[in-house]
## 1
Amino acid sequence: MERILDVRELSISFGGLRAVDDFSLELKKGELVGLIGPNGAGKTTVFNMLSGIYAPTEGRIFFAAAGTMQDITGLPSHKIARMGIARTFQNIRLLKQRTVLENVLVSFHHSLRYNIVDALFRTGRYYQEEKTMKEEALELLSTFGIADKAEEQAQNLPYGEQRKLEIVRALAVHPSLLLLDEPAAGMNPQETKALMEIINFIHREFDLTVLLIEHDMNLVMNVCQRLIVLDYGKIIAKGLPEEIKANPDVIKAYLGEEV
Ligand SMILES: Nc1ncnc2c1ncn2[C@@H]1O[C@H](COP(=O)(O)OP(=O)(O)OP(=O)(O)O)[C@@H](O)[C@H]1O
């Protein structure tokens, strides 16, 4: 299978702290992989480097865009997003006082096909694009079961639905790689179960590669095809969920936490 992401020996230091140390990872197109590890292990920092929020101190990131592997190391996050990497955040980032639909439409605008002239003069193409975007946004929202909330303010949605809306916003930019940072955080068991189904569904239907950070071991073990385990910034294990569950180094790293 074709590669979509090739991360080579990535490291980053904050002052004296090496938050991520020699992190390498290859993702094939269509994989659904989990990145796990105890609190502070460096998982979100890996996402921040992949999505262009931090430039790594060392190492390179290659990503398949426009038919070739391109070096995206240190590119600004808006460029990386346009190339096809979308992400969600551990702390939900929505336009809280805008409606649910507006939140999705703003994301669509980042991947627009009409130009500024079309927008200024309200050309036919502009109206056509706006209409298509709205239809597509509502379709995405209905996939997640929140289309009936389209006109509500985002801040009024229950927490689980705000998390879903974040994923919809990420999908609206038509990514080929989706990075999900703790999508089940703060969800109750029913919401988490529904989320597992949604992740499986979007992975299948949207032809996506997914890299997922998650502390909910039930979700991780059920959804991910393989796992990478970080501890103190270093990869301590890689493998199938069953192998990881039985790995003594992983159990030791999680000692005191639930595996
Ligand atoms: N901008 C920063 N400046 C200084 N230290 C940072 C910065 N970002 C992360 N760190 C440190 O890097 C380490 C890894 O943090 P990171 O948030 O990546 O861990 P994590 O595995 O995502 O943890 P959690 O599961 O709790 O979200 C931590 O010690 C953190 O304090």
Note: The chain has a mean pLDDT of 90.
## 2
Amino acid sequence: MTTADEIAAAIAPIAGRRAARPRISGNLASLIVDATGLAPPECEALERELTKVVGALPGIATVRIAFTTERATRRLIAVGSGKGGVGKSTLAANLAVALAGRGMAVGLVDADIYGPSLPRLMKAEGVRPTAKDKQLLPVATDLGVPMLSMGQLVAPGQAVAWRGPMIGSALGQLLDADWGATDTLIVDLPPGTGDIQLTMIQKYRPAGAVIVSTPQDLALIDARRAIDLFTKVQVPIIGLIENMAGYACPHCGGISHPFGSGGAEAEAERLGVPFLGRIPLDAAIRAASDAGDPPARHDDEGGAAFRAVADRLYEWLNAPG
Ligand SMILES: Nc1ncnc2c1ncn2[C@@H]1O[C@H](COP(=O)(O)OP(=O)(O)OP(=O)(O)O)[C@@H](O)[C@H]1O
């Protein structure tokens, strides 16, 4: 009969410190092996070799091997909105850039199948991600934020006809990519509050959600729906951001309020969710965004507004407990 110590000695040259102490039950030997960092083919080779070596020991008829991996605890922060065009992608990109500017290891996932716009916002248009052992490698950007977008996986417009399971598996590829040291992923969700959003949120549970709205009533009704969607599945609402607030006329400097004023802050108070701040409606924000130059990097009013909102998110992410 072989003892557990003898099995441990036999596998030490193969598995090293990866193997826990073996267990024997009758003629069954059970091994637990840490596969962290091993690619699937390396894992298979290790399994074959361990089975051969241990199976050849006296009195062992069956070898059972369980692989474990130390899963990185990566937080997902969802950026959602009740309706399209309110600046959700703009916020997602700028929040990620501002958090990276504060030293966080943050990545960006564009799950917006209807209009993936993050590649343009992050100057990564037309760059296709590569894969290693069937795992996607995020695209590096000049902004210190690696990213992956549905728009990098499929031709424009193609994914719109997808059904839930296809979307789920595509999103899984983005989220389970080789994110390396990235510990926080900002996820730009599709606009709206339909089944797709619900499935995504349930399957890849975010640590918290940021909701973007314009100050106008209609957008706020939709924002309320978005908040309900997250609350229904107990995802904490980090807060509401008002985008496209007061418009500063580039000619006379006067402030006007094309989408109303203060609506989101009042709504946040009514709903009992934090108000994270407002971003002005500013032609310079649109121009910089279109040029793949996130305004959060700029030392102007728009940049300061994005950084102030990102600071609130930073506080939430780094709050003790
Ligand atoms: N504060 C702002 N000032 C000026 N333009 C803005 C501002 N926020 C966003 N925009 C512009 O509005 C347009 C829509 O923004 P964005 O793509 O971020 O919206 P969205 O909510 O993600 O839309 P969708 O999800 O429907 O694609 C873009 O052209 C963007 O540059």
Note: The CA atoms of residues 40 and 133 lie 7 Å apart.
## 3
Amino acid sequence: MKHISILGASMDLGQQRRGVDMGPSAIRYAGVVERLQNLGHQVTDLGDLAPPLSASNASESESLRNLSQVVEVNTRLAKEIDDIIASGSFPLTLGGDHSIAIGSVAGVSGHYKNPGVIWYDAHADLNTSSTSPSGNIHGMPLAAALGLGEEQLSHIGGSEAKLRPENIVIFGARALDDREKQLIKQLGIKVYTMHEIDRHGMSAMMAEAIAYLKEKTDGVHLSLDLDALDPQHAPGVGTPVVGGLSYRESHLAMEMLAEAEIITSADFVEVNPILDEKNRTAKAAVDLIGSLFGEKLC
Ligand SMILES: NC(=[NH2+])NCCC[C@H](N)C(=O)O
Ligand SMILES: [Mn+2]
Ligand SMILES: [Mn+2]
């Protein structure tokens, strides 16, 4: 039995398609609280973080869209996550676009000597304002956690880097920008692209990733972007990429993580109900959350 604190981070300013701020509601309607309670966990739903204070962003740069609002919300999120862990509870953050992982990772990192992360995503989210093709901050959270790019982002929750490159595993990648590929090589970040997963199978690759992180880290944050899944299984995302992980593979991944007992915090992000079909993507998120917290088929 775990004590789990659910926190909605209803942020949509890290990218340009409206609607992803409704992700937390959609995941709640898909029954996340009941699902976790039925598994015997104690669940507190803390509701949603308050929206950003500043509304206007007209003067802000196109290489960092809506910077001040993203900074403001993530600063509050980092503090909330920090408090949740300090109280002995497991923080489960519901996005919102992936920019909210800047705050969740910042809030987590101070609690561990060697915090690690599994970035379950079609993308690497390793851009900075100088490499980003879009200026969308949801493509930058992993770079910010490494201490790279705009300091207003990387200094949220403290000026130190929140993650070491060797404690990061990217899983499901298939849409990396050239500069992200360079950075991955330069820093030696472990990446399981769709190529490795197709070639050797989810079971072997996830087992390897788990063994790798178990050796290096004392706490692992799972940051699961629903676009890691193939759009067939998770159509309600803002940046879908074909050729993704299946529903079944993702279930197996969550079951293996549950069995390994390495995940100490998590976020499920990028569910956009406006782009979804009958809440399928939110339902997939809840199914995966069930498996991550110990649900078994028999
Ligand atoms: N969290 C995401 N869905 N990120 C998509 C990022 C796409 C692209 N690499 C960019 O930086 O704009
Ligand atoms: Mn993505
Ligand atoms: Mn992402």
Note: The chain has one domain: 3-293.
